[in-house]
Amino acid sequence: MDAEAKVLAAHVSRDARDGLIEGAVGPFYVAINRATFLLVTAIFLAIIPVVVYLLRDASVPLIWVVAGGISLEAGAVAHIAVERVLRKPVRQAWMAHGAVSGLLVVTLLAILLG
């Protein structure tokens, strides 16, 4: 392979990677394109009010567990969006993760227990 072909191959490879959100979930490698990430995020956010509606008469421990799980997952989505989609520093991603998780768990508990 000549030098020009190597440069072209590296450029094509970089372009292909730039369209993916890559990472690890436990021992697994994950790669998802931005459009799919945004679709999954939209579905997740649309289902939150449905889950809140279904939990209106649930027991208090179940409300705490589900509210905590939803808030942690929403924080993870915010973290991925800030770090991988917006390409901001990891520190800002963790700040977004904490802020979204904290605000959402307080909001969900206030709605369900208030």
First-last Cα distance = 68 Å
Which strand-content bin applies to the residues? Answer: 5-15%
Poorly predicted segments: none
Determine Rg (CA atoms, Å).
Answer: 19 Å
Strand order of the largest sheet: 1-2
Number of helices: 4
> Helices and strands, in N-to-C order?
HEEHHH
Q: Roughly how much helix do the residues carry, as a percent range?
A: over 70%
Structural class assignment = mainly alpha
Mean pLDDT: 85
**Which outline best applies?**
elongated
- What oligomerization state is this entry in? single chain
* Strand element count: 2
Q: Largest sheet at a glance?
A: 2 strands, antiparallel
Concise account of the structure shown:
The chain has 114 residues and is mainly alpha-helical.
Structural commentary:
With 114 residues, this protein is mainly alpha-helical. The chain is built from four helices and two strands; from the N terminus they run αββααα. It has helices spanning 3-18, 34-54, 60-85, 90-113, and strands spanning 20-25, 28-33. The chain has a two-stranded antiparallel sheet with strand order 1-2. A hairpin with a 2-residue loop joins strand 1 and strand 2 (28-33). Helix 2 runs antiparallel to helix 3 and helix 3 packs antiparallel against helix 4. The longest helix has 26 residues, at 60-85. It is elongated and about 70 Å long. The termini are far apart. 14% of the residues are buried. The mean pLDDT is 85.
